[in-house]
Amino acid sequence: KGTIGQSPNARIAIDDVSMMHCHDSAPAACTNKEFQCKSSTRCIPVAKQCNGIQDCSDGSDEQGCPSIGNCNFEKDMCGWKHSKSNDFNFVMQKGADAIENNGPLYDHTTETNQGHYMYAEADGKTPGAKAQLSSPWIRFNTDCTVRFAFYMYSNSKDSLWLNVTNYYSSNP
Fold this sequence. Notes:
The protein has about 170 residues and is mainly β. About 0% of the residues lie in helices and about 25% in strands. It has no helices and eleven strands. It has strands at about 1-5, 10-20, 35, 45, 80, 90-95, 115-120, 130, 135, 145-155, 160. The strands form four sheets. The protein has a four-stranded antiparallel beta sheet, with no helix packed on it. It has a three-stranded antiparallel beta sheet with strand order 8-1-11, with no helix packed on it. It is elongated and about 60 Å long. Mean pLDDT is about 75; it is low at about 170.
């Protein structure tokens, strides 16, 4: 969620959201903080699993990575939705902000000005206005890691929040 402070010229962009280790448990041969490569007894830190870099010689650390919640915003919003209580919305954009050139110069995924990211601009918005994106519902374990790239430009105290909401149900 991005919230506008007192600045009329604030921008926030997010990209490359990934949720790692949210569904997996570690094999018995490795500790609970390690992933065991399939074709060897090699254990790597779980932070290296599903990070886009092949650390196991067989590539097993990058296979079968959960896609729920992951999004680079290149084609669409990947099931992420705008909150109904938003005062304004993020928009999919590529390249720098065309008006003031204050947005990111390039996309984090492609590292070019042709890649896409989600962008919220505060120009003309009231202080305290908010724009919020919500991921699809995800059932995750306590070792789940959320990573994302972000860009903020402002001359006041605007904010970017990551909220995790836990809903309990009698049906597991």
